């Protein structure tokens, strides 16, 4: 199969590299020349474990290439995937489909033969209909089908998620397009990955429903964590105690500083907007977005409280800036809201993140960046663990404490226990562990 992937970001680049690894010939197109130049030189524009080697292997095999020229890349393609961004539209929270429709018009201007066009971007219900209208209007004589094929990979685990998905969702009722999608995903079907063939609109909604459900699960356990603190219970045991029930499931029950990232925050908002447009309000998801927003600020207050009444002018060592480990993505990271509330309270910040500091730098005026966790803690009054990178899981706590003014630890990811932190001299606070 010859595949064109439009957008070489987290999803487009990972999907393109994995499809080429299945044996397809893939051209990734991006309008950002810096990204394409970097990729042509073997440099990854994002941090994603395993990606560099996968890209190098498939480039060497002649199956994967990169370009800024959409027109030449789509010529002769069997399928064209749209994997451009769909951020929140400024001001109203709807998904901003500017990039999707711009890519659609560029596709329409360049295709000449039958082709399946696939929306891999997360797009609101009805977007596929609009994409189809645009292309049919501009290319009335070319056979096309527009398929929805949402992506469920997680950053930091993207290649494994793509190659061993819990399911593949394909939204089209057209037999030819179903056949093309079967051929594209053949290696996964052979591995018996479940596939859901459905209508395009249903497929589009499945993606938002999945993300909103996961965001709800996290927010639920975060509220249980608050209750645990108040009543003297342990949220990790509650998670285990409920998660062992197969009907609930053990995943996405880790209490923390609130969900962040490039998708849950924007996708829950976009779902609310769709629901509003169709007069079917979704009060649960609405509450989830509000609770999660206020939680991030509450985590800032938790750190301030741990510093005591005379917190002004004190220094916090903040460990972990990205919204989760194993990514350099800073979009909607809880650290951003936490840092803002610390700065508002007159607190100095020394931060360290293994991969996120380059991107975080311009977003964090006034923050001092350290070379590692120990450097960050040097002279600090508290250390706040915000993202659970592996490198923070086995810190030499006595060494960390030794460089600090007053060893206080606020562990927002429940990496350590009160006992082990206490042994190293820390006054320790975590999330939802009242016992
Ligand atoms: P991203 O911002 O990392 O990448 C998008 C890329 O598209 C950018 O490099 C941009 O330059 C490029 N682009 C935009 N318009 C273009 C055009 N007309 N021609 C060529 N290139 C163009 O975005 P992302 O995180 O990869 O997300 C893409 C979509 O996938 C979004 O809808 C997102 O919700 C969805 N998604 C993301 C993830 C994730 O983990 N990041 C997971 C599942 C789904
Ligand atoms: C999420 C979904 O998990 C993917 O299935 C989906 O494809 C993707 O969004 C998307 O649509 O972009 P991602 O945002 O990469 O993936 O990362 P997650 O692992 O889901 O984490 C999201 C946020 O939730 C992080 O801030 C993380 O710290 C938080 N989280 C996650 C918790 O606080 N507790 C948990 O138990 C799990």
TrEMBL record:
Protein known as: UDP-glucose 6-dehydrogenase
Positions that bind substrate: 152-155, 207, 252-256, 260, 324
Pathways per UniProt: Nucleotide-sugar biosynthesis; UDP-alpha-D-glucuronate biosynthesis; UDP-alpha-D-glucuronate from UDP-alpha-D-glucose: step 1/1
Ranges of residues in domain UDP-glucose/GDP-mannose dehydrogenase C-terminal: 317-418
Organism: Sphingobium boeckii
Family to which the UniProt record says this protein belongs: Belongs to the UDP-glucose/GDP-mannose dehydrogenase family.
NCBIfam families in the cross-refs: NDP-sugDHase
Positions of NAD(+) binding: 30, 35, 86, 122, 155, 266, 331
Lineage: Bacteria, Pseudomonadati, Pseudomonadota, Alphaproteobacteria, Sphingomonadales
Coiled coil: none
UniProt cross-references to SMART domains, sorted A to Z: UDPG_MGDP_dh_C (SM00984)
GO MF annotations in UniProt: NAD binding; UDP-glucose 6-dehydrogenase activity
